[in-house]
Write a structure and sequence with these properties.
- By secondary structure, the protein is mainly α.
- Helices cover 73% and strands 0% of the residues.
- It has 18 helices and no strands.
- Helix 15 packs parallel to helix 17 (336-361) and helix 17 packs antiparallel against helix 18.
- The longest helix has 35 residues, at 258-292.
- The protein is globular and about 80 Å long.
Length: 377
């Protein structure tokens, strides 16, 4: 102390090995001291994000808050354009537009469509709109950019944050919120007023009614999205078509010299998109199966169809087509797998809650108690 005032000092120790840092943190947890011990392993040089590490703590906090606000806004507003597009491509809307234009022939053709055919077309178009909007959101790199602004000091942290955002987008927005899209904001208001029981009851009512929608979604995944994305490789073909202007833009953004630096940055950025997308896409399909296995068992056959189609294609692509550069940057150094396992446990718990809500709505108290006790057991 100096002049009767206590001063606090911050000591930073850099350890040569991770084992020494872990030992220091364990000793700090075992023995109570007045010194706050916090140990963080430094990223490898190739894995470090120097732009984030160079920012001040206040700027990192500001960027992370803004990224969180943008993520919440995206999740809340994404269903609005999806609903508008789905409403615009409905047969009734198209028929009304053609009638206003005075095209009697097409109007008569639409009126003569059988009810089953009409329901099939509308279900296929509705799920196709969701698939395309989902593909556009995930493949645009927007979630990866948001994860970058959360301030992680390594590409591995950014990759895991991207995977978390993609999982939250697919599971909570596409799988759950799309079933209550018409009353999403009313449901949020009901939760704020009456608690989470309103949400459980709402999901228990709406999710079973959306089984045919997700059957169309799975069929499109197996027979339309997979051939376009994984067989024709539309994204690399598109990048090849705009290679020259994209490289010029990359040089300006990353301030790299020469085409070699641009190619390396493009490869790194492409890998930032590819692997979280593949993981989140597979989790989305499996989560549909987990959610609907007890509600609509027919969905299991569509999941098996998707697996039969996608497994040999991804196996071949991983060996001969994508051929990613190995090392710390490949698959986030193996950090994806434990993250995926934890997220799948969350999906299993949510499926249990939804099934319990369905049991409660149908006055099956015994089934409700059994379903709620299964996770504890």
């Amino acid at each position: 102390s100096a002049g009767g005032q206590e001063r606090e000092a911050t000591l930073v120790a850099v350890f040569r090995t991770r084992r020494a840092a872990a030992t220091c943190e364990q000793l700090g947890a075992l023995f109570s001291t007045d010194v706050l011990v916090h140990s963080t392993a430094a990223p490898q040089l190739r894995d470090a994000v120097w732009s984030n590490l160079a920012r001040s703590s206040r700027r990192r906090l500001l960027y992370s808050v803004l990224a969180g606000i943008c993520s919440i806004a995206l999740f809340l507003l994404w269903n609005v354009p999806v609903g508008l597009v789905q409403g615009a491509v409905r047969l009734e809307t198209i028929q009304s537009i053609l009638d206003d234009l005075g095209l009697e022939g097409p109007v008569e053709t639409l009126q003569n469509i059988a009810p089953r055919t009409r329901a099939l077309i509308e279900g296929w178009v509705a799920s196709l709109v969701v698939s395309l909007m989902q593909l556009l959101t995930l493949y645009s790199g927007l979630l990866t950019l948001l994860a970058h602004f959360f301030g992680y000091g390594s590409w591995t942290g950014i990759d895991r944050a991207t995977l978390h955002l993609m999982f939250a987008f697919n599971f909570f927005l596409v799988l759950l919120a799309s079933t209550i899209a018409g009353s999403l904001y009313g449901t949020i208001a009901g939760i704020l007023q009456s608690g989470w029981c309103v949400l459980i009851g709402k999901l228990g009512q709406t999710i079973p009614a959306q089984s045919s929608f997700f059957l169309n979604y799975l069929l499109q995944e197996a027979l339309l999205i997979t051939p376009i994305i994984d067989l024709l490789h539309i994204s690399p073909l598109f990048l090849l078509a705009i290679e020259r202007p994209l490289r010029a833009l990359c040089c300006r953004l990353f301030a790299c010299a020469g085409c070699a630096g641009c190619a390396e940055n493009l490869e790194r950025w492409g890998q930032r998109l590819t692997y979280p997308y593949k993981y989140s896409r597979a989790m989305m399909v499996i989560n549909i199966g987990v959610m609907y296995a007890c509600i609509a068992p027919l969905v299991v056959f569509f999941i098996l169809l998707w697996l039969v189609v996608i497994v040999p294609i991804w196996s071949y692509n991983l060996q001969y087509v994508w051929a990613p550069r190995q090392g710390a940057g490949f698959d986030s150094g193996g950090a994806f797998w434990p993250t995926v396992v934890r997220l799948q446990l969350l999906a299993l718990g949510a499926a249990q809650v939804v099934l319990a809500g369905i049991m409660l709505i149908n006055s099956r108290v015994d089934g409700f108690m059994l379903v709620m006790l299964l996770p504890v057991a």
